[in-house]
Amino acid sequence: MLMIVLRRVPRLLFVVVAVTLLTFILLELTPGDPATLKAGLAGTPEVVEELREELGLNDHLLVRYKDWAVDALQGDFGESVVYEDVSVSSRIRSALPKTLETMILAELMAFAIAIPLAIRSAQKPGGWVDRWSSAGSFGLLALPSFVLGIYMIFIFGVKLDWFPTISSDLPGLFDDPAGNLRGYFLPSLTLALNLLAVYVRLLRTDLIETLQQDYVMLAQARGIGTRRIMWRHVLRPSSLNTLTAAGLNVGGLIGGAFIIEVMFSYQGMGRILIEAVFGNDYFMVAGIVAILSVGYVLVNFVVDILYSVLDPRIRTVDA
Amino acid sequence: MRRIIGTWVAVLLSLALLAAGCGDDGGDSGTTPTDPPDDSSEGADLPEDNTGEGLEGEQLTSAGEGGDSGDLEPQYGGTLKWALNRDGTGFDTTGAVAPGSIRLINAMNDSLVGVTREGEWVPNLAESLTPSDDFLTWTITLRPGVTFHDGEPVDAAAVSANLNAFKAGPVVGFAFKPFVEAVAADELTVEVTMSEPWAAFPFSLQGQPGWMVSPETIGNNDTFVGTGPFMLENWETGTGATVVAYPDYWRDGFPYLDAIEFTFVPEQDVRRLAFEGEDVDGYNSPGDTDILDFLDDDEVDVWIGDAAGNEMAYILNTSVEPFTDVRVRRALAYAVDRQVIVDTFRSGLTIPASGPLAPDSRWYAETDYPGYDPEMAKALIDEVEAETGPISFEISSEAGASFIEVTELVMDFWRDAGVDVSIKDVALGQSAATNISGAYQAFAWIQFSSIDPDGDYTFFHSGSGPLNWSRLQNDKIDEGLDIGRTSDDPEERLRGYTLFQEGLAEDVPIVWIDHFAGIEANVARPYVHGIEEAILPDGQEAFAMVAGSFMGWGDIWIEQ
Question: Burial of B426 by CB count in 10 Å (0-12 exposed, 13-18 middle, 19+ buried)?
Fold first, then answer.
């Protein structure tokens, strides 16, 4: 296990450096000047030049990147050029928990629905559960998340009034769990619906294939119950593709979360990133992209580790 | 057989969902935060009785009647939940204050001066303002016993500090050009001296220069310690703000509400859903289609401002090519069919503009501003191009829908006239900085909602430096603005502003599009009362809403 971890760490670092450096280069190509933006209406040429020196903008790109990276490792991503005296770190600290909670809840909901549905479908391929879940999956895959979100808000928020239509200013999860979860339910469910469509399809297929393995027939012949066989002996080895999809989907989940945060109007990472892009808030963009890329890589790193947990054969091969 | 039917039902349901999701419901396209208002949308069918002249300047309820709380006694208590279309970027009164911040400040602020619905200035936070005969000195007398939200007294020292700090602001100070200094003559008397006569000085104190904050917080961007009916309890950037009733408010009996919870919801569709889901009691910037929908809805009140609204326009930099040539400027004005824009993007709710003053303004004057004449536009462009070669330029524009949609149509009009035009992106909220730097040829802009024309002096007068948006040097405009500024005779002022408008129409430094008054609106539930009221201390009525912003939050109450 330790060797698996050690072999993957350099790859992780390489990806993070590559993504953040590329972001820096792209920001460099963006029209506009952070110093001019930050100076705002008081931006005389002298003031702007002074700010450029202060922000290190006259240095070479690689020098600036190095300085930024060193500060970033200490948790300092600089200051917003749009909001006065607002650090990028403080905005990320405020926004990240909201996005994380949305994503985690979405994944949990997706798996909570997808696993039983896939199992039922795999147990009776062609049955009504299988057919309806397949059709439903195609429908959900075809619908963009913002369309789903509108329906969710309209039906459950406006017409039924079961959930709030906007999720801004929610209580903390530990302050008021019920209020918090009620507020995040619709955004998370909206994201989960796109995810579960993928998970149901993948898991169903793998389950059906695994169910045809000899050892499963042997287990059945030995009189082990169907439920035990499914949950203990079939589900685990069938989960690898779904797990891979879950890891890769984090990227899509982040993108989906952006849209959801805008629709449900709360300041998660996605929404502040969009505002930062439109407002040419360079350091905010760089900081958020750095955090998101590290997060994405870490999640897939964990997925890699989980492979060997789920399937001992991979542990042996890696060793 | 059952299996086949079941499969097809599932497929058809999925297709129906897909079609519904991708279909156009004719609603708004949604917007991103920009300069106010960000409520331009896809066109909708015009109301049957729409004549293309826009709604009259009235405050309407869904029943088409004005004001429904006349017989009811205001009730105390309750928290109003209000969705705003954008957040602010801070509260520094000596800098450029974002529109989102202004909406919050209006709940926490009393300006020194108010303006009645007849357009006359009256003291508000100040007890009186008295000019010298030559208007070179103004004496401001303050009310005793008034305090800021931190308990500090609103005395002459505090007011002087605020006024002097505004004058010292690196850019906003241009708007205070004649102001020299304010001095505390005694505890409640401020003497203001001018470098030149300024008869219209009190009108400026209705706006940002007249916002008084506790001296220790002058220049503080994170808070607003004012004198208004509400005080800031918290402000979370991008999320919302809560203001609570100020217990020591100097106006007895106000406010009625305990608190107001503002939520920032930039997307128009989401604001509407939040309102329909009863998560908010009202919201601003509803957009043209929402206005039309809610006018037919008995469960919703629509409040459309009847004071000076903003105008959308394209400012031309007359100091750079190709706009040094008045023929090019006139051609661009001739080329644009403003009525098409009003019909397409405003559902006919606004009025085509030919200057900064709307026809219902007491200062409005008819001019010879170029009307839609594409043949004339083309002829002028051909004439100029024969001398100088092809004409091309860039329009600086923010990415918000209220700019881009209209700008793309306007560009088509201009291309039909024979010019080559493209868009130059401006970061959100950076238009003003771009304009001031002068690094533009033309830019899309929304402004000019001053109740009194003197409030727009700075943006047209040649002596205003970088705040003279178009950089135009025009003696007629300057003369007209100076007359309006230095005279307190209404007839003389009207003469001045007529000159001003004529100068603008002749030299065309600006291509006007429309007056926004018809769509600068707020929607609210019928149990929210007092929206139509903004009572001044002497009992006169002020404009309750200016450019879509409420001025009288203290007058609002909720039916319990």
Answer: buried
Listed in sequence order, the residues at least 6 apart from B228 whose beta carbon sits closer than 8 Å to its beta carbon are: B106, B107, B108, B109, B110, B246, B249, B553, B554
Mean pLDDT score of chain A: 84
- Cβ(B80)–Cβ(B283) under 8 Å? no
What is d(CA B512, CA B509) in angstroms, rounded to the nearest whole number?
10
Chain B residue numbers touching A84 (CB-CB < 8 A): 89-90, 92, 221
Q: Which amino acid is at B136?
A: L
Instruction: List, in sequence order, every beta strand (DSSP E) within B266-321.
Output: 282-284, 301-304, 311-316
A319: closest CA of chain B, how far (Å):
47
Q: Please tell me whether residue B41 adopts helix, strand or coil conformation.
A: coil
In this prediction the pTM is 0.83
Using an 8 Å Cβ cutoff, are B460 and B500 in contact?
Answer: yes
* pLDDT tens-digit series, residues B92-112: 999 878 788 899 999 999 999
Q: How far is B266 from chain A (nearest CA, A)?
A: 8
Nearest-5° Cα angle at B250, B249 to B252: 85
The structural domains of chain A, with segments of one domain joined by +, span 97-277
Q: How many CB atoms lie within 10 A of CB A124?
A: 10
Total number of residues shown for chain A: 319
Per-residue pLDDT of B307-346, as tens digits, reads 668 999 999 999 999 999 999 999 999 999 999 999 999 9
Element (DSSP H or E) covering residue B545: strand B545-546
A204 to chain B, closest Cα gap in Å = 18
Q: Does A131 touch chain B (CB under 8 A)?
A: yes
The pLDDT of residue A42 is 61
Q: What is the pLDDT of residues A142-164, one digit of tens each?
A: 888 888 888 889 999 999 999 99
Give yes or no for A162 touching B (CB within 8 A): no
- What CATH number was assigned to the domain covering residues A97-277? 1.10.3720.10
A141 CB near a chain B CB, below 8 Å? Answer: no
B274/A36 touch (CB, cutoff 8 Å), yes or no:
no
Q: Helices in B389-489 by DSSP H: which ranges?
A: 401-417, 431-437, 457-460, 475-486
Which residues numbered 66-105 in A keep a CB inside 8 Å of some CB on B?
82-86, 91, 94
d(CA A28, CA A61): 8
Which of B73, B254, B107 is CA-nearest to residue B553? B107
**What is B1-86+232-560's CATH number?**
3.10.105.10
Q: Domain locations in chain B?
A: 1-86+232-560, 113-217
List b or e across B186-221, with b for residues whose CB sees 16 or more CB atoms inside 10 angstroms: eebbbbbebeebbbbbbbbbbbbbbbbbbbebbebb
Nearest residue on chain A to B4, judged by CA atoms? Answer: A131
SS (H, E, C) B213-235: CCHHHCCCCCCCCCCCCEEEEEE
- Shortest CB distance from A41 goes to which of B3, B11, B96? B96
Residues 163-182 of A with CB under 8 A from B: 164-166, 168-169
Q: B113-217 maps to which CATH number?
A: 3.40.190.10
Query: What does the pLDDT look like over A198-210, one tens digit per residue?
Result: 899 999 999 998 8
Q: Tokens 């001398």 appear where?
A: B387
Half-sphere exposure of A33 (CA within 13 A, CB side): 20
Quote the CA–CA distance of A32 and A48 in Å, as a whole number: 12
Q: Which residues contact B231 (CB under 8 A, 6 or more apart)?
A: B108, B149, B225, B243, B244, B245, B246
